[in-house]
Amino acid sequence: MTVASARAIFAIRSRTLRIGALEGDIIYGSRWFFEGSCLARRPSDLICLRISRPLLEVIIRQHLLSLANVRALEDCAVESLLENSGSVTGIRLGNGSVIEADLVVDASGRGSQSPQWLEAIGHPRIVMRVIKGNLLSAKAAQNSPTASS
Ligand SMILES: Cc1cc2nc3c(=O)[nH]c(=O)nc-3n(C[C@H](O)[C@H](O)[C@H](O)COP(=O)(O)OP(=O)(O)OC[C@H]3O[C@@H](n4cnc5c(N)ncnc54)[C@H](O)[C@@H]3O)c2cc1C
Fold it and tell me: What's the 110 CA to ligand 1 centre distance in angstroms?
């Protein structure tokens, strides 16, 4: 983790707390269910922020957009990669405009089209291996201190 990203995390944490997020022990302050059973609640040192996902996303977005060297382009999807002599040199957007770059980072999630885009500019097909993690989804019910007091 870089100093800049650590600073960003602390700035985001402070902001979420200022606007009402709750910080607390994720094990003791929550009720966790795994495979139908409730886990024992014991004090731990796992301190977490309790905040809704939409609110967290808004705060992160506001923080990023406040940075001088960050710019957001809305309502435009990346359609393909720009290429020069086998190297990626930028992106082409759905509206036809292009952005040239020294480095392109694909953060488009699990539906990423990078394999197809790279293939389209002459790179060999990326061989993907699916690793089954056997992880389960868990839900936690939480009472806020204000609600229980
Ligand atoms: C129903 C559901 C519940 C989940 N619950 C949890 C949870 O409780 N806790 C947890 O930790 N994780 C959860 N996850 C997983 C979590 O959402 C993902 O791991 C996480 O969002 C991945 O982040 P990401 O930034 O890689 O991709 P994403 O969040 O998918 O972001 C990708 C972004 O790229 C954009 N994009 C895609 N293609 C293009 C394109 N061609 N041009 C421009 N933009 C593009 C998309 O619009 C999107 O905004 C859940 C996932 C699902 C589906």
Answer: 7
Q: In a 3-state reduction of DSSP, which class is residue 110?
A: helix
pLDDT at 12: 85
C-alpha separations of 124 from 39, 105, 106, 108 in Å = 48, 19, 18, 21
Give Cα 11 distance to the centre of its chain: 16
93 with 77: CB under 8 angstroms? yes
| Concatenated DSSP letters of 47-100 | EEEE--HHHHHHHHHHHHHTSTT-----S--EEEEEEETTEEEEEEETTS-EEE
Chain centre distance of CA 118: 23
**69-118 pLDDT per residue, tens:** 999 998 999 999 999 998 999 999 999 999 999 999 999 999 999 999 99
Residue 135 CB–ligand 1 contact under 6 Å = no
Q: How far is the CA of 70 from the centre of ligand 1 (A)?
A: 20
5: which 2 tokens? Answer: 């990203």
Query: Residue 43: which pLDDT band, with cuts at 50, 70 and 90?
Result: very high
